[in-house]
């Protein structure tokens, strides 16, 4: 069995962020049939993206949305108590 290296890395360059956004959109639209989800969204200015790679291949992503006085965390759109927690949006 071949050994691979899985890495998790914060990304800030536009190309990597876009790859993460495309993967997230694909999961929401294709796997979950949630076609109303648009990424990038209103929370971009307070989002931090991470990529998960198996070797050189992007296999997953997640973003952390930091709430502030101008933007709420996306979870608060459906769960108001989420403002009291640290929320990370995890995507396959």
Question: Strand order within the widest sheet?
Answer: 1-2-3-4
C-alpha geometry: globular
User: What is the β-strand count?
Assistant: 4
Instruction: Let me know the largest β-sheet.
Output: 4 strands, antiparallel
**SSE succession:** EHEEE
Could you tell me how far the N terminus lies from the C terminus, measured between alpha carbons in angstroms?
24 Å
Q: Given the structure, what is the number of helices? A: 1
Computed over alpha carbons, the radius of gyration is 14 Å
Strand fraction: 25-35%
Structural features, described:
This protein has 92 residues and is of the alpha+beta class. It has one domain (6-91). The protein is built from one helix and four strands. It has one helix at 14-31, and strands at residues 6-11, 47-54, 57-65, 88-91. A four-stranded antiparallel beta sheet has the order 1-2-3-4, covered by helices on one side. A hairpin with a 2-residue loop joins β2 and β3. The radius of gyration is 14 Å and the shape is globular. 10% of the residues are buried.
Identify the notable features of this structure and list them briefly.
92 residues; alpha+beta; four-stranded antiparallel sheet; 1 helix
Condensed summary:
This protein is α+β, with helices and mostly antiparallel strands. It contains one helix and four strands.
